[in-house]
Write a structure and sequence with these properties.
- By secondary structure, the protein is mainly alpha-helical.
- It contains 22 helices and no strands.
- The radius of gyration is 23 Å and the shape is globular.
- It starts with a helix and ends with a helix.
Length: 448
């Protein structure tokens, strides 16, 4: 075979054969939404189970498992073995593999950091320097810093919510307002942190560097944060001084978080960054006797175990997405978007709405990103939206919605700790509403 013939063959092999649009191929997604969203609403609001969150009774893994079964039953033109091959190609994508490995390391980092007392020490250090007149603003800023360092919004809320309740009671400040400030700060870092599972999911599914997504995010997030700070400063001026108290902390236990963040900003490989963070917490924790070798390994084990559900969902979504795409489901969505949008702004709007809807449906921003990513990737190619902007939109929109829905873990955890209803917090979610506004501004100002 000649070289030219060989090149032609390779080119034809690489050329993707796009299936015909087929709306019925989206049935697995509808089945998942019916089981998970329907079950969550039922157990949360219609028939609550005491001591349990409704959206955590209906297993997201089981729901996706049933949806995968439905996907396998569709399209009889393909044999079972052919469908298995399609699924294996979906799971075998290099970005999926990297994402799964990073999830494991991020879990180990989070586990040992928590066991060593890094998060509590960082929060206490910052609380000691808050001016009494700016308690509400201080809670937001501390939430921003802690969540960037920890990479988890729920973890940040768990650390800060008890302190926020005390600040509210001591300063006679609205408890929902303090809760809203903490949640806003938590979502800020969840969106920007290099070790957040949402950042990992958004960047790896789009095949972009975390630093690229971070820079794209800053253009939306920083104006929103600045406006939120001004609003909360005005609120602080109009409220009485609050006594935040004095707390013990260790600079050494807070230091690894800041080192990890700075190293990530330099563009260093995320695997190396996380390994350095783990080593630093191990070193400082042992030196200060806040952990032992046994507790360090136990905490890292628990941290990685906490990622297992997210990793399982990632694998299931990769297989379902591969089948839906092969059956023509993604083409059906693209056809719909082509019929209603015909510009780069339209593509960005489609990505934003798709991710937001997925988060409303799943009540989990990481799952929402992983689910929306395959379709968003096709939209970005079709409408000329860069992959870094797509990753930024997915991460930001999922964090906005996750920080607003009253049945999401973030609001439910804060409400449970602070003894209020999650609905009462919604009007005080200033940062999330401001950020949604700036997302819309970004889309409107995009050049077609």
């Amino acid at each position: 075979m000649s070289e030219s013939q060989d090149n032609m063959l390779n080119s034809s092999e690489k050329k993707e054969i796009r299936p015909e649009p087929n709306g019925s191929a989206l049935l697995p997604i509808l089945v998942f939404l019916f089981i998970y969203l329907g079950g969550g609403i039922y157990f949360e609001y219609i028939s609550p189970v005491e001591g349990k969150m409704g959206f955590y009774i209906t297993s997201v893994v089981v729901s996706f498992g049933i949806a995968l079964t439905v996907a396998f039953l569709q399209n009889r033109k393909l044999s079972f073995d052919e469908k298995i091959n399609i699924c294996s190609r979906g799971i075998g994508d290099s970005n999926i593999t990297i994402m799964l490995l990073i999830f494991l390391l991020a879990g180990a980092f989070s586990g040992i950091a928590g066991a060593a007392g890094g998060a509590v020490s960082t929060a206490n250090m910052l609380l000691n320097i808050i001016p009494p007149n700016f308690a509400v603003l201080g809670l937001f800023l501390i939430g921003c810093i802690i969540s960037i360092a920890m990479g988890t919004s729920v973890g940040t809320i768990t650390v800060l919510a008890p302190i926020a309740l005390m600040v509210a009671e001591n300063g006679r400040i609205s408890v929902p307002l303090c809760a809203g400030s903490v949640i806003g700060g938590a979502m800020f870092g969840d969106n920007l942190s290099f070790i957040s599972d949402t950042t990992i999911a958004a960047t790896k599914t789009m095949g972009v560097e975390m630093k690229e997504k971070f820079i794209a995010n800053i253009k939306m997030v920083m104006p929103a944060a600045a406006l939120t700070i001004m609003i909360l400063a005005a609120v602080s001026f109009s409220s009485d001084a609050a006594s935040t108290g004095n707390y013990e902390f260790s600079v050494l236990l807070a230091l690894p978080y800041f080192i990890v963040f700075l190293l990530a900003l330099t563009g260093m490989n995320v695997f190396i960054v996380l390994l350095i963070g783990i080593a630093l917490f191990l070193l400082f924790g042992l030196g200060l006797h806040s952990i032992t070798f046994a507790s360090a390994f136990e905490s890292m084990g628990k941290g990685t175990s906490s990622m297992f559900e997210t990793m399982t969902v990632t694998i299931l979504v990769a297989t379902i997405s591969a089948l839906i795409k092969a059956h023509g489901g993604f083409e059906a969505i693209l056809s719909f978007i082509r019929a209603h949008f015909n510009s780069k702004r339209g593509g960005m709007t489609g990505i934003a709405l798709l991710t937001s809807f997925m988060d409303i449906a799943t009540a989990n921003n990481t799952v929402a990103i992983v689910t929306a990513a395959p379709i968003a990737r096709d939209i970005s190619t079709e409408f000329g939206v860069s992959k870094k902007i797509t990753a930024s939109l997915m991460d930001t929109c999922s964090c906005v919605m996750q920080g607003i829905i009253p049945y999401g873990a973030q609001l439910l955890v804060a409400a449970g700790i602070m003894g209020i209803s999650s609905i009462s917090i919604v009007p005080w979610l200033i940062y999330q509403f401001v950020l949604a506004f700036f997302v819309a501004v970004t889309i409107i100002r995009a050049k077609n």
